[in-house]
Amino acid sequence: MIIGHGGNKKDLAVKLGCHMDQIIDMSSNLNPLGPPENIHRFICDHVEKIESLPLPDAAGMRDGFARFHHMDSSRVIAGNGTTWFIYTIPRALEAKRVLIVGPTYSDYKDACSMHDIPYDHLVSTPQDRFMPDMDQISACAKACDLVFICNPNNPTGALIRKEPLEYLIQKHENTIFVIDESYLPFVDNADQISFVGDIAYKNVIVLSSMSKIFTIPGLRTGFLSAHASITQKIMACYQPWSVNALAQAVIEHIFDHPEKIEPFYQKTRAFIKTEKAYFYDLLERVKGLELFDSSAYFILARLTGNQNSKTLCEKIGQHKILIRDCANFEGLSDRYVRFSLKTRDENQQLAQYIKQELKGSL
Questions:
Q1: What whole-number distance in Å separates Cα of residue 12 and Cα of residue 20?
Q2: What is the reported pTM?
Q3: pLDDT digits (tens, 9 = 90+) for 172-206
Q4: Which of 58, 88, 108, 140 is the most exposed place for a label (fewest CB within 10 A)?
């Protein structure tokens, strides 16, 4: 069971004696622009969908994803969020040993532990700005039949370009590489980096989340794409009706209007580029804080003064703002926190409180 993810607005609201709506959540990685236009209205207008059983294999949303990415639907599975796939893949593929490239999302490790599958962590370092060493990955991959790589990575924001990944994939044909692209839609030229729809490789699994970019984590929707030989094995473990009817309808609606998707991506990317530059500028010269470059919209920071992550998170929480304590990421420590950007005013508020709290601890 995962413990320590971001977004516990309820607990902080109870602690402060305020309403949940007063809490600014900058700990969870969601699009700061919110869902696309009319998604809330669509949900309200189609709430009667909950009165009927959904398609058992979510075929409608699967076909929409396949159509948008110009690929055969036999290469796609629609699921109850990418997390469901993470926990299913090691068991379905009968993995013997797994390599996890970190520091990264804890569910890769938890999925292996759940099925008693041994795993190794290969952790990049702050000295390398948390950019993974591809030669080290290659050396470790020799002993593994499954490798998890989050790209861009959570929580570091490090992005591996497509060519180095292709080098690994081609060199280790008997190893399956799970490339989690949950945050890739936020990256410029994502289509040139993504492996979705790439039919050249039979040993690649791509995970695509709808939660982050479309700000609908509560609907629990995501996709797995791979060669048909892999999707057949995953489907052998598939649970029917795992994606609820309303969630299926929303995702089908999004893919029924493909002309709106790319403009939404571009609007999001432009907003994040501006706000990220602004936020870095506000905090880059603050004593006691080191910011790491990020290709995503969240930023990893190291505390270099007397403050630790738990204390800073608690102090920022007193201002009704949640940030992510990264102490429970394998390879990090209680010196790391993560900020997920939101609006200009909220980003400015967070920067102000960070300066205030760090100044008091130096």
A1: 8
A2: 0.95
A3: 999 999 999 999 999 999 999 999 999 899 999 99
A4: 140
